[in-house]
C-alpha cells in the first residue's frame, strides 16, 4: 500500500519531531526512542527509505550495525539531539544485521557499503533517494560531524534542553552583535508571552533564559561565568533527582547557548569522560559573592 499524501501542515510544523511522528505513522516508520538507536532519529529499511527521503529537504542517513553502541554512537546521539529542533533536517539510521535474517543488508548493499568495515558511514540525501550528494566516513567526533552537517545543510543548532527561539536571540546579541542587550531582553519577553501556558516546561526554561539575559543587560558577559560557577557548586551538593536534572539542563543552556558552543566548535577528547558540569567548570570563575540559591 502506498504511503498517503502528507498534509501540508505536517511539513510546516515548527517542531520537527512532532511532524516526524505523524509522518512515520502514515508511512510505517518507527522513530527511535530507545534501544541502541539515537533518540530522535528514525530507523529506515529498504521500503521506508524510499518513502522518507523525498519528504524532507535534507536527510542524513547513518549506516551501521544494528543496535550500535560505543563512542561513535554516543557522538551521533549528541548530533541528533542538537538537530531535533531544526524543521528541515532529518537524521536517520539503517541498522544492518550481520547474522540471522541479515535485515537491511540489501539497503546497505544498494548504498555501496555492504561490509561492516565500511561502517559507520553517513550519507546525505536531498529529496532524491536514488542519489546521495555527499558521504562521511571519518572520525565520529561531534565537532567533525557538525562541520560535515554545516557543509550540506543550513541548520538551526540547539541542544536537548535549549529553546531555539531564545538561542537565536542570544546569538544575535552576544556573538553577532546585531541587537542590543535591551532588545534581546524585550524580544525574549515577547516570545515568552506568546508561548502557550500549557507548555509549562518550555515556559520555565524560557524564564531562565530571560533571567540570564537581564543579568547580561545589567553587568555584561561576566554574568555567564558567575552563573556557571554557581551551578557547578550546586551540582556538587546532595540534590534531589529533580533538582539535579534542572541544574544540568541549565548548565547545558549556559555551555551551548550563552557560551557560544552551539556555533563555536571546541575540539573534544575521543573518550567521553567529561560531564556537563566538568565542561562548565572549565568556563567558570570562582566568585564567592555569588548567591547559592536553590
Automatic annotation (TrEMBL):
The keyword Signal applies. One of its GO terms (biological process) is protein secretion. InterPro entries: ERp29, ERp29_C, ERp29_C_sf, ERp29_N, Thioredoxin-like_sf. Keywords: Endoplasmic reticulum, Signal. Residues 161-254 form the Endoplasmic reticulum resident protein 29 C-terminal domain. The keyword Signal applies. Residues 1-18 form the signal peptide. It comes from the Eukaryota. Residues 38-154 form the ERp29 N-terminal domain. This is Uncharacterized protein.
Amino acid at each position: 500500500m502506498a504511503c498517503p499524501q502528507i498534509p501540508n501542515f505536517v511539513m510546516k510544523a515548527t517542531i520537527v519531531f512532532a511532524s516526524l511522528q505523524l509522518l512515520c505513522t502514515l508511512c510505517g516508520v518507527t522513530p527511535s526512542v530507545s534501544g541502541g538507536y539515537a533518540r530522535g532519529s528514525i530507523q529506515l529499511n529498504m521500503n521506508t527509505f524510499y518513502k522518507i527521503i523525498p519528504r524532507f529537504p535534507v536527510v542524513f542517513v547513518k549506516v551501521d550495525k544494528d543496535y550500535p553502541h560505543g563512542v561513535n554512537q554516543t557522538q551521533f546521539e549528541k548530533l541528533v539531539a542538537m538537530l531535533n529542533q531544526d524543521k528541515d533536517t532529518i537524521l536517520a539510521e539503517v541498522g544492518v544485521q550481520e547474522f540471522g535474517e541479515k535485515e537491511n543488508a540489501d539497503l546497505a548493499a544498494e548504498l555501496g557499503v555492504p561490509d561492516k568495515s565500511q561502517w559507520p558511514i553517513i550519507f546525505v540525501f536531498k529529496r532524491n533517494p536514488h542519489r546521495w550528494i555527499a558521504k562521511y566516513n571519518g572520525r565520529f567526533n561531534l565537532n567533525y560531524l557538525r562541520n560535515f552537517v554545516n557543509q550540506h545543510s543550513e541548520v538551526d543548532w540547539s541542544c536537548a534542553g535549549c529553546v531555539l527561539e531564545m538561542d537565536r536571540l542570544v546569538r544575535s546579541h552576544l556573538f553577532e552583535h546585531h541587537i542590543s542587550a535591551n532588545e534581546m531582553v524585550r524580544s525574549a519577553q515577547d516570545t515568552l508571552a506568546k508561548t502557550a501556558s500549557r507548555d509549562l516546561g518550555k515556559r520555565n526554561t524560557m524564564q531562565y533564559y530571560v533571567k540570564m539575559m537581564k543579568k547580561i543587560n545589567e553587568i555584561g558577559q561576566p554574568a555567564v561565568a558567575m552563573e556557571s560557577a554557581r551551578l557547578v557548586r550546586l551540582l556538587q551538593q546532595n540534590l534531589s533527582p529533580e533538582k539535579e536534572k534542572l541544574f544540568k539542563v541549565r548548565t547545558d543552556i549556559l555551555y551551548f547557548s550563552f557560551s557560544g558552543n552551539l556555533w563555536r566548535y571546541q575540539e573534544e577528547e575521543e573518550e567521553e569522560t567529561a560531564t556537563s558540569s566538568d565542561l562548565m567548570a572549565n568556563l567558570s570563575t570562582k566568585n564567592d559573592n555569588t548567591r547559592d540559591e536553590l
